[in-house]
Amino acid sequence: MPEEAPVQVARILAIASWIMDNPGQSVRQIAQHFGRSSRQVRRDLEYMGQIGDSMIDRSYGLDWDLYETEGVVVLRGSQTPSLPKLTPAEAAALLVALRALAPYLSESEHEVLLSAAAKLASRAGHEGEDTRGGREVIHLEQESSNSSELQEEMNAQRVINLRYAIDEKREVTFEYLGVDDSYTRYVYPRGLKHLSTGWILDAWDPIRETHRSYRVDRMNNLVIGEKHARVSIPSEPAPSMLTLTISSNARWICEDFESTLISEDAQAITCSLPIWNEKWILALLCDISADIIECPSEWMQRVSDYAQSAMEIWEEVKMIRSEA
Known about the structure:
By secondary structure, this protein is an alpha+beta fold. Among the domains are: 72 residues, Orthogonal Bundle (Arc Repressor Mutant, subunit A); 68 residues, SH3 type barrels (Roll), CATH 2.30.30; 83 residues, no CATH class. Strand 7 and strand 8 form a beta hairpin. It is globular and about 60 Å long. InterPro entries: CBASS_pafABC_assoc_protein, PafC-like, PafC_HTH, WYL_dom. Pfam families: HTH_PafC, WYL. This is WYL domain-containing protein.
C-alpha cells in the first residue's frame, strides 16, 4: 500500500530538524544518516520545498541555489544568517589563493575547488573589472586534469600491487584517507572488486579481527610486506537475500542498490536484494510499498508493524507539540 502521509511528514520533519542542526551536508550524507537512498532523499527534499513546516520560530526554506549548484543542503529562515557577499576584488584574491592550494588537495577536494573557482571567477569578472579570474580557472582546470590522469595511473598501479599481494598471500600496509584524517592500516588482502565508484579491496584486519573494505583511490604509501602468518580467517558471512516482484515504477532500486535481476518484462521486475541491514530494508519496503507485487508474507507483516510504530511515534510527537 502507499506510504501513509503522517509517516512521510514525520520523516520530513525529522530530516528538516537534522539539516537545521547540521547545515551544509550533501544528499549522500543525509541519505547515509537516515538509512535511505540518495534518490529517496532528493524526493523528500522536493516535498519539503512544497509543504514547508510549522515549527515555531524555525520555519525554513531550502536554499535551492546551493542545492542545485553544489549539491549541499542548507535551510534558510528568519534565524539563519545570509550568505556572505564578496566584492569582485575579494573574489579575485580568493581565486588566486585557491590556485596556490590546488597542488596539495585530493581528487575529491579538487572537484570542490573547481566548483568554487568557477563561482568566484564569475564574481571576479563582474562588471568587466578583471579577466584574471577566468585565466585562473583555466589554470586550475588544466592542473586538475593532469592530477586526475596521474590519480588514475596511481590507482591502476595500486590494483596491480594488490593483486600480487592477494596471489602471494602477502600482508600490506597503507595510509587510508578517512573523512577527517588519514590512518595507517595493516591488513591481509583477500579480494578486489570493481564498482561504479571504483576499486574496492576486501581484507582481513588481524588487529581488529574483522573483515574490512577499503576504497583503493583513498590509499597512499601502499607497501607490500612479507607473506602473512597462517591464520584461520573466518569467511565473511554472506547476507540473506530478499526476493521481490515490483512494478516497473520501482526499477530504480535495481540501479541504486546492489541487487540480482531475476526476470523483467514491461509490467514487472523480480529481483533479489542482500539484507545487510534490516532497518534499511524495512524503510525501503515502506517507500516502495505501492509498487510491491509479491513479497514474502513475513516481511510484509514486519513492514506493517514498522509503519504502525512510526504512526504511534508521530502521534506522540503531535501530542507533545500541542502541549508545548
